[in-house]
Write a structure and sequence with these properties.
alpha+beta; 6 strands
Length: 136
């Protein structure tokens, strides 16, 4: 028997879109609205180990170097790990104010870990790593 995950996929996509829109609005609260309280985010040189820490660091960034920025996101895959977990892999990058394209040197590969809690898909973990130039 086949089990369709279309509704789950749509719910996960909605969480991602809401997060991207909140980033573009400089809204740290909105950006983490669909994160678990114990979420973690790992980016080059940093570990943010709760939704509150992620929100605080993003609020500071939106008032500083990320003011007026948005993100570029190209989903590469989405797969389910059991009934209540999913992993999204994307190529992403930051579009700083005035930019229309992310340079290759600014792109990252990102992993989003989703958990379904009480019927709602939430971001439980995020990690990114710079995209390395291909070896010639």
């Amino acid at each position: 028997m086949s089990y369709s995950r279309a509704a789950d996929e749509a719910a996960i996509q909605a969480v991602l879109v809401d997060s991207y829109k909140a980033w573009e609005a400089g809204d740290a609260d909105g950006m983490v609205a669909d994160y678990t309280a114990d979420a973690s985010a790992i980016m080059t040189g940093s570990l943010r180990d709760s939704r509150d820490v992620i929100r605080e660091s993003m609020a500071l960034a939106f008032d500083g170097p990320l003011k007026g920025s948005s993100t570029y996101n190209k989903q590469l895959s989405l797969r389910f790990v059991g009934r209540d977990a999913a992993i999204v892999v994307s190529e992403s990058g930051i579009l700083f104010a005035g930019e229309t394209e992310v340079p290759d040197t600014g792109k990252v590969n990102a992993t989003w870990v989703f958990e379904k809690r009480d019927g709602q898909w939430l971001i439980a973990a995020y990690h990114n790593s710079p995209v390395l130039a291909p070896v010639q």
